[in-house]
Amino acid sequence: MLRPCWTCGGSIGGKEGSLLELTEKAGPDRLECPQCEQDRAVEDLGPLVLPVPTKREQMAALVSTPDDPWWEVRVLHAKLYPAKSRRV
To answer: What is the pLDDT of residues 7-20, one digit of tens each?
Structure first.
């Protein structure tokens, strides 16, 4: 099962039971459902960059696997988009 849409928390494949959800394959790198992705493009918001894991979260991850479906993507985004280059 894939993680939920980051923005709305719904199904990453689209509205549950919709033709889009049933026919379009949602890749593991998808962050938002098609509707939220489209809204982001229409509003010209730029790419979605997830929040950097806190030091506390990083230390806890050394002991046990975080209960965050976004953990691996957040860690990857922290490496790809260092805090100093992020827009605030």
So the answer is: 888 877 766 665 55
Place of tokens 């709305």: 8
Indicate yes or no: pTM above 0.70.
Answer: no
Angle at 41 between CA 86 and CA 25, to 5 degrees: 100
What residue type is assigned to position 32 of the chain?
E
CB 12 within 8 A of CB 2: yes
Burial class (CB in 10 A: 0-12, 13-18, 19+), 39: middle
Q: What share of the chain is helix, strand, coil (3-state, %, to 5)?
A: 40, 0, 60
pLDDT digits (tens, 9 = 90+) for 26-46: 566 788 888 888 899 999 988
